[in-house]
Amino acid sequence: MHRMEDLFDIEDRAAGMQNEMVRLRRDFHRHPELGFQENRTAAVIAAYLRGLGMEVHEGIGKTGVVGVLRGGAPGKTLMLRADMDALPIQERNDCTYRSVNPGVMHACGHDGHMAVLLGAAALMSEIRDRMKGRIKFVFQPAEEGSGGARHMIQDGVLKDPDVDAAFGMHLITALPCRTVGWGRGTIMAAMDSFTLRIKGRSGHSSMPEGGVDAIAASARIITALMSLNTVPGFSGRTLINIGTIKGGDASNVIAEKVELTGTVRNLITGNRAAMPAAMREVIDGVVREVGAACELDYQEGYPPVVNDDEMTDLLCRTASEMLGEGSLIELPPLMASEDMAFYLERVPGCYFFLGAGNPEKGLTSSLHSSLFDFDECILSTGAALFTRLAISFLGLDG
Ligand SMILES: [Zn+2]
Ligand SMILES: [Zn+2]
User: Fold this and answer.
1) Residue 302 annotated to the active site
2) 20 to 30 Å CA-CA from 172: which of 81, 208, 264, 373?
């Protein structure tokens, strides 16, 4: 069991690291890179971890980096994960650390995630001799849609040493600083994507009887698909969205082809499994009636993020010891998705949110906004919380 004074000491040490983490965060922010292109980012991380005397593996899951810290006594292996990629957004903030890469921006706070995890790595390496077990510091590329987690798993990130538990964190400006948003079980939705290709028959627009109008068919298909969102049992747990629609060649020609793309989000595994068939049934009903053809190409994306009960309890206990019980905010499941899900399918763990908003400083823009920024005071909070989580999970020796 750890001594209480050790834990207070960790927050002091984290506060002492604050300037260093701000420097790292601003450096990442200034030089954002898109998924699987995080080469500069990876080099900065690898050099930093090597400077801490850690064993470092590069090129895991293409541009990912893993640092392994071995404690002074044997024990379990804990994985802590940060994502590395930025978004294809032109930054509109006017700050000294504004992005220098046109059209690319850290608008999802991943710059903060990396700085927090590097700060935590520095804190833990200071007390490594007294720590039990091992910690894998996992810096993962391409969270925003390309599933970098899957690539890191294929490259063995969960093996050798085998990971016993995994934690990950996302900054969120919707919650104030020094709060932790948490949830039990399924906390984020699975997300799949689809393409629909509707084929009719072209003809003169003055003679509708001579053709099959793919645009009219697509309108009916869209209405029918959207109505699935309100079916009892699906409502609030399943969400179909059509994001693009392309079709037709000229204003006076009956359209022959329409292509639609969209996403399906599910909080219930059974709903997810039932989705392709439910969509096909709705689509077939329309195309049979109008004489069109329609092909559904359904692609599985991220699984749901499912938190382990025991690891969720560990997070809540640790956060409330450090920040006070009032700092814990239980969140309803979100329809957003996260590729942290791939790790949590395989090992127990917990994904949580760290409050990073500050209305007094005007830091309230939402994630993925071109004006996104967060209160940097959370960097030391996050690093201390990860360190305390590691101590809670692995234990201190002596
Ligand atoms: Zn994002
Ligand atoms: Zn993100």
Assistant:
1) yes
2) 264
